[in-house]
Amino acid sequence: MVQGILLAAGVGRRFQNETPNQDKLLMALSNCKTVLAQSAYVLIQALPNSIAVVQPNQIERKEILQDLGFIVIESVAAKNGMGHAIADAVNQTKQGEGWLIALAD
Q1: 5: number of CA atoms within 13 Å, CB side?
Q2: CA-to-CA separations, 85 to 29, 30, 31, 41, 71, in angstroms, rounded
Q3: Are the CB atoms for 6 and 50 separated by under 8 Å?
Q4: Apex CA 38: angle with CA 34 and CA 41, to 5°?
Q5: For residues 54-66, b (16+ Cβ closer than 10 Å) or e, as one string?
Q6: Do 28 and 34 contact (CB within 8 A), yes or no?
Q7: pTM of structure
Q8: Contact (CB, 8 A) for 24 and 10
Q9: Which tens digit of pLDDT belongs to each residue from 17-52?
């Protein structure tokens, strides 16, 4: 079975340069869903067994993802880059026959 992985552990450094103190994944789209909820919804519909990766301090992101049915992995190493978040997710889902990696933004 293919394992879905949603990467939601980033901090959006480029975005923060333009709009400091705002979490781009928590910003509302025209349909009133957050960027994160919209991306997550699409993935969980396609692959219901999907997991998501966040950093431990990203509590609101974690809550949104859990409400949508994701198993959420808190990755301390994700602060070092996307590759670390992917490695933590794959290590948690070694039973997968393959992985589909989606970005939360």
Answers
A1: 27
A2: 26, 29, 29, 20, 14
A3: yes
A4: 135
A5: bbeebeebbebbe
A6: yes
A7: 0.90
A8: no
A9: 555 567 889 999 999 999 999 999 999 999 999 999
